[in-house]
Hints:
There is one protein chain. The protein has 387 residues and is of the alpha/beta class. The protein has helices at residues 22-27, 41-44, 47-57, 74-87, 98-110, 118-122, 185-203, 211-233, 238-252, 266-277, 281-296, 302-313, 321-338, 355-362, 376-386, and strands at residues 11-14, 32-37, 61-65, 91-96, 133-137, 149-154, 159-164, 172-175. The site of 5,6-dihydroxy-NADP has 35 residues, from helix 2, helix 5, strand 6, helix 7 and helix 11. Residues 188-387 form the Fe-containing alcohol dehydrogenase-like C-terminal domain. GO terms for molecular function: alcohol dehydrogenase (NADP+) activity; butanol dehydrogenase (NAD+) activity; metal ion binding; methylglyoxal reductase (NADPH) (acetol producing) activity.
Amino acid sequence: MLNFNYSIPTKIFFGRNKIEVLAEQVKNYGSNVLLVYGGGSIKRNGIYEKITDIFNKNNIRFWELPGVEPNPRISSVRKGIEICRDNKIELILAVGGGSTIDCAKVIAAGYYYDGDAWDIVVDPRKIDNVLPIASILTLAATGSEMDAGAVITSLETSEKLGTGHKDMAPKFSILDPTYTFSVPKNQTAAGTADIMSHIFEVYFNNTKEAYLQNRMAEALLKTCIHYGAKAMEEPGNYEARANLMWTSSLAINGLLSYGKDAEWSVHPMEHELSAFYDITHGVGLAILTPHWMEYVLNDNTVDKFVEYGVNVWGIDSIGDKYEIAHNAIKKTKEYFVSLGLPSSLREVGIEEEKLEEMAKQATVRGKLGNFKPLEAQDVLNIYRAAL
Ligand code: NZQ
Ligand code: ZN
């Protein structure tokens, strides 16, 4: 296990009706709030009304930034920064999924940045001060509710880039699983694939002796497999939604990656698909993941796939290593398909045309991952296999 410093500063309020803490928590930071949300799901399921009632009863003044897009745009970030500067905002409250929370994070960092907000997406080292942000999560997927990262898209340049700063982690997040009952099936499936991918990105790794982190990762993967399917069948099943929601936070908040030297690879490949074709993040991951697994399977990595197959999928450990590994990858793919997720790029309208350009752009900051480092040609091979 490698050395690490533990710090997971976000306070979590988890469970039914936990919105009751909202006013008291907000007041720790001030009484001028920017409420950031997406395309209207929070109005349809009643969460918006609950929040605004609480604000009105508690003399909390609020401004709104509605309409944050899935794959949030830098243009929404710029709008938000303007509202914050014009109104002396003291806390940004994001209500929604990862897109809304990510947008709020970069607004918070951009507020103090003297220049165009895209600069701090391209180069996170330019961030030195951040307004407090908080979240009310409505979709279990990205883990943005408990991490310090954000991913923003520039449509003009077909770029989707990750940025981050320790102070971009939400000060508090309210996780009420009932708020995810209204998440449609396609987003439930994509969210489950996203959580699993966050776990894979650190599980498939060369650091030895991280036994504890590996067993925790397997527990989280099994939880996704079990409850992802359950939430698809019964969208209002509290136990399923609660387990997915907490897994989404634990998958990426640092617990699994502490003590490991984990460089991600499937995520940067997927971000190009979303940047060029605006597809749903979790869908892109579900398509690419089994092909990435097959591509990186070799004599150095096969034991890790055996560990995965035996511990997560319950495959018999006696037998040919490669057979177990291929079987584990097959089960992963079949699971995604069982959730109704597409399994090829063509199904989401992606053809050969831009694959080369995307592979180049994915590796512009260097090779991807360290389980098996990938160059542009490797990324292209994986894209082609996924066609
Ligand atoms: O916009 P609204 O109307 O709210 O509808 C959203 C949106 O259409 C809907 N939705 C959310 N909660 C709902 C609901 N519909 C009904 N009932 C509810 N309770 O779901 C749609 C997708 O929302 P979005 O926020 O885009 O989804 P997700 O949470 O999957 O976020 C995806 C974004 O996060 C980034 C992705 O790249 C992508 O841009 N990521 C952020 C990460 C991070 N900050 O750490 C890590 C991830 O790997 C990921 O890259
Ligand atoms: Zn993700």
